[in-house]
Amino acid sequence: MADLDALRTRFTHALEGARSPEATGPDPVPYADNLLARWQEPQRRYHTLTHLTAVLDHIDVLEAHAADPDVVRLAAWFHDAVYFPDRSENEERSARLAERALPEAGVSAAKTAEVARLVRLTVTHDPADEDRDGRVLCDADLAILAAPPSAYAAYTAAVREEYGFVPNDAFRPGRAAILRQLLDLPRLFRTPYGQAEWEATARYNLRTELEMLST
Q1: Which residue of 79, 102, 132, 214 shows the fewest CB atoms closer than 10 Å?
Q2: Domain co-membership, 31 together with 94
Q3: Are residues 87 and 107 part of one domain?
Q4: Same domain assignment for residues 152 and 121
Q5: H helix or E strand, kind and range, residue 98
Q6: What is the largest CA-CA distance in the chain?
Q7: C-alpha–C-alpha distance, residues 73 and 58, integer Å
């Protein structure tokens, strides 16, 4: 069970960190609560508060590699804020939600635009080499791929549940194609930490899942 009070505090710190020092804005808690409600919607099985918390935890680990860690944290809060597994425009709708909410919450136009850019980047998880914040968000989002075997199995089971409306004879080849695309990438992770600590384990997990789907 997620600690909602702790998550509200984390959102408040990120929002206040992203605001200009001289800026004043409304109470962050209603904004946090709106996002928390979205992350608890019933259609979610993997893209839940557990995933949000894990991404925030991984950003904390990678913080030194980011140019603006609080902007990256806000992007994590918004990156799956709109999520329906049967729709393809979730990232775009999540980015637009950030573009509406953050200026009202006291975040500058420039930082709002950066949050929205980062959210849209999670469509491809392909940040440029010089994109420090993009590398951190994408690595944090993909870190589940390097989870221990039991946690990785729980992740794959939750993904399958989210796509319960897709029959097995369609899901298996679709999922296998995604795994092959990931394995064909020269690097799954873009930060030095991710490459050193997560790359090898993630590739092992992906290969293992692909072999299971192929049997």
Answers
A1: 214
A2: yes
A3: yes
A4: no
A5: helix 90-104
A6: 60
A7: 10
Positions in the chain whose pLDDT score sits under 70: 1
For the stretch 53-106, pLDDT in tens is 999 999 999 999 999 999 999 999 999 999 999 999 999 999 999 999 999 999
Chain-centroid distance, C-alpha 11: 15
Taking CB atoms within 8 Å and a gap of at least 24, the contacts of 167-173 are: 172/213
Burial (CB < 10 A; 0-12, 13-18, 19+), residue 214, is: exposed
pTM of the complete model:
0.96
CB-CB contact of 140 with 118 (8 Å):
no
Phi-psi region of 106 (alpha: psi -120 to 50; beta: other; left: phi over 0): left
Counting every residue, how long is the chain?
Answer: 215
Q: Which of 144, 160, 177 is the last residue of a domain?
A: 144
Q: What is the DSSP letter of 144?
A: G
Q: DSSP label at 188? A: S
Q: Cα separation of 12 and 77, whole Å?
A: 11
Segments in the chain forming alpha helices (H): 4-18, 28-39, 49-62, 69-79, 90-104, 109-121, 132-142, 149-162, 168-184, 192-197, 199-214
Tokens in use for 179? 């795994």
Task: Give the per-residue pLDDT at 24.
Answer: 77
Residue at which a domain ends, from 126, 144, 162: 144
User: Domain limits at 52?
Assistant: 4-144
